[in-house]
Structures are given as structure tokens and as C-alpha cells.
Design a protein that fits this description.
Elements lengths: L7 H8 L9 E7 L8 H7 L11 E6 L1 H8 L4 E6 L10
Antiparallel strand pairs: 1-2, 1-3
């Protein structure tokens, strides 16, 4: 796994997962355009990423730790970030 491509919240969350095969982490995947990576769309779709279309470079998905590890090793993946629930600041 290439931890340089993971944000710190995701790296911590990976340690808390019981089953590394189960898709349980909601993530953002930032890819970079690369003419040599014709396998990128197929790999993303095989891992369960929806709405893989040409020209799109940010994807959301619910992935397993194993899938995140595979993606982090790809040269066309720029970073993978954990999606976190947001809260309102001025709730009454």
C-alpha cells in the first residue's frame, strides 16, 4: 500500500476495519489523466466505482481496505481521501 496517496483519516480508518475484504469505507478517489493507463476505467468499475466516464477525474465509492491498497499502487491515482460526515456549525 502506498500511504503517500492516502489522507491521514483514511490511514487511521484502515486500522479499525475488521474484515479487509468487505467494502466499508466511503472514499474520494482523485485520478490524473495519463495516456498510458487505458486499464484505469476497467479497474475502477471492477472495484465497484460507479459512474466511470471519460474526462472525469474524481470518483466516490465504498471500498474495502484491499481495494484501497490496490488503487494506491496505481500510477494514475493521485490520492484517496476518506469521506466524512459533515455537521452544521450553528445548530440550535
Amino acid at each position: 500500500m502506498n500511504y503517500q496517496k492516502l489522507d491521514s483519516a483514511l490511514a487511521v480508518a484502515l486500522n479499525d476495519v475488521d474484515n479487509p475484504q468487505e467494502p466499508s469505507l466511503n472514499v474520494f478517489i482523485q485520478t490524473q489523466p495519463d495516456g498510458n493507463s487505458t486499464d484505469a476505467p476497467a479497474m475502477l468499475e471492477n472495484l465497484g466505482v460507479a459512474d466511470v466516464t471519460p474526462g472525469k477525474d474524481i470518483f466516490t465509492a465504498t471500498l474495502s481496505p484491499n481495494a484501497i491498497s490496490q488503487l494506491s499502487e496505481q500510477p494514475w491515482v493521485q490520492y484517496i481521501k476518506l469521506s466524512q460526515k459533515m455537521r452544521l456549525l450553528n445548530r440550535r
